[in-house]
Amino acid sequence: MRPLPNAGAIAATACRLLAERLDGSRVQYSVVEGGPGEEVGHALGEHVRRGVGMPPRYPFAAFGEGVVSVMRAGRTLVIRDVDTDARIAPSERGAYRSVDCLSAITVSPVKSGRIAAALTVQHDKPRNWTDGEIITVEAVAERTWAAVERVRAEAALRESEDQLRAFGEASSDVLWIRDAKTLEWVYLSPAFESIYGLSREEALSGDTWRNWLDLVEPEDREHARAEIGRARAGERVTFEYRVRRPVDGQVRALRNTDFPIRDAEGQVARIGGVGHDATRERAVQRALEYSERRLRTLVEGIPQLVWRAVDHGHWTWASPQWTEFTGQPEVESHGWGWLEPLHPDDQDAARAAWEHSKATGLFDAEYRVREEATGEFRWFHTRATPVRDQHEAIVEWLGTSTDVQDLREMQERQGVLVAELQHRTKNLMAVVRGVMVRTRQQSENLASFVATLDDRLRALARVQGLLSRLKDNGRVTFDELIRTELSAVGAIDAEGRGERVTLDGRKGIRLPSSPLQTFALAIHELATNAVKYGALGQPDGHLTVRWRLRHEGEEPRLHVTWIETGVAMPDPDAAPQGGGFGRELIERALPYQLGAETTYVLAPDGVRCTIVLPVSSTMERDDA
User: Where is the PAC domain (predicted)?
Assistant: First the structure.
């Protein structure tokens, strides 16, 4: 049976020879599958001399538990007469008669606690089997079992080697097998040539271990040698190293997985290995790491709080800026933890904004966040957009929170300034209209009207110039106003000095802005009249202006005293000079518009005027 090509031929030949030797009606060799109680025979070879053949597949249970139990025990089953054998129940005899079996010898090798095969010789009549016949069947069964298993093992080995070869030839990774003692290659797959840049013939010639080491970059050789040594000692190892291709000098990065292959005694006989070209993966990984570093630098460098979230509001990450600003550890911001630093009055609104984002696909909200360094809450404008996968499903949200506290304060100030501008413009127009009316009434002709109106409008323009240049909501101080007007009529120089003028008062007393035009126009009229008719227009005249801030009751009040001396006054019965516009402003307009207390007296040597003006407690400048 040794030269026979396969297990089926061996089984069929053994069955034929045994049937001829014993004159049996039928001989069958079957392999058996299934454990105790579930055994099924699969015919591998059969020879029929008389009667019908056995089914190619049959359950053992059909022939009765009494006979199968003998087979499970590894004993030879001898049946001389099916009808009289006590182990076969009457109900089970039909299975034997259906295949013309009235007597039989069955030998069943038992391996690992179960029936592995069965060689049965059957006769179509009762038969008193001799001991010699029984011994013959047992001997043939043993030899057939050994031959069949040998051929099946050889076939399985060939199939395994063919599969390995096919796998190795198709694989883009290098597959190899080394001898564990010499570390020489005994198998090398074709992918070696495309990765290493060296033919297999060259690699497998001479000292193959040295051939491989020479390809490894010098800096990586010791590491590679050590890892192979670990596999040689019985470990499974994965390691990376670089090789230089002889064909073009390129350097490739490889990732090896080496593992021990043991023999029947459990000793490491060979070392198997898989080599993967990781050059492109390493390049992609380096590019990804560089990109991540750039993104991290950008995210951590921008003056915003950056974060990531899932499930419409559950944070998964917060940038260092968040921790630095709020003092909340990054891990505590996860989930809904980020709400903790928010102002209690804004937390529900923040949650509601997330609910709204489900419909809009955009998170946009403003809320206050507590700053750890100051303990104050600052306004932040927060926006987030979803990151979607290829199916447009939301994977996560990326968001930023921008500090808009200064912007909101600026917008609030801007609103105040716009309202203030509207109010000032309205007042200014009323003042201009009043000036035009009074100037027209007091002018003798058109030329006089134009000259006087131009002078008074210039005074108003100077006040507006002061307002436009100043910060702090456009508050003008009294010392700036008086110097501007006296400088405009040439009474003092740019440093505030004049030979015939004395200014006595503190700097920095702010004036209310709303009725400032009227007050400034009154000062202008006093200065203009002083030039035309009074102390600034006569050789012996002198002007003294004093001002004090006095606290009287709930509000401070500015006391201004205008004193002209050395003036040759006209006869008391003469017509008034200048038309009286300035005096009208002082005695009527200022009390009405500013709530001021005023006096205006024509003394023997010049004008005496006092103005007591209420100012706010915030009208004193810090540098006053």
Answer: 237-290, 363-416
Quick one: pLDDT band at residue 444, thresholds 50, 70, 90?
Answer: confident
Query: What phi and psi values does residue 588 have, to the nearest 5 degrees?
Result: -120, -50
Question: Per-residue pLDDT averaged across 141-163, rounded?
Answer: 83
E strands, 331-376, are 363-370
Helices (H), 73-171: 93-97, 131-170
Q: What are the boundaries of each domain within the chain?
A: 7-154, 171-282, 302-401, 459-614
The DSSP bridge pattern shows strands 305-310 and 363-370 to be unpaired
Fold match between domain 7-154 and domain 171-282: yes
For the chain, the distance separating the N- and C-terminal CA atoms, rounded to the nearest angstrom, is 125
Cβ-based neighbour number of residue 281 at 10 Å? 12
Q: Does the pLDDT at position 175 exceed 50?
A: yes
**Cα(125)–Cα(531) distance, integer angstroms:** 161
Tell me the C-alpha distance between 487 and 495, whole Å.
Answer: 9
Instruction: Evaluate if residue 472 carries a pLDDT over 70.
Output: no
Put simply, whether the predicted model's pTM sits higher than 0.70 gets the answer no
Find residue 58's DSSP bridge partners.
Answer: 41
Q: Which CATH class is domain 171-282?
A: alpha beta
Q: Which class is domain 7-154?
A: alpha beta
Helix (H) or strand (E) holding 226: helix 218-232
Size of the chain, expressed as the number of residues it contains: 624
Quick one: how far is CA 585 from the chain centroid? 70
CATH 3.40.50.720 matches 302-401: no
Fold of 459-614: Heat Shock Protein 90 (3.30.565)
Give the type of residue at 493: D
Beta strands in 363-475 (DSSP E): 363-370, 377-388, 394-403
pLDDT band at 167 (very low <50, low <70, confident <90, very high): confident
Cα(305)–Cα(87) distance, rounded to whole angstroms? 88
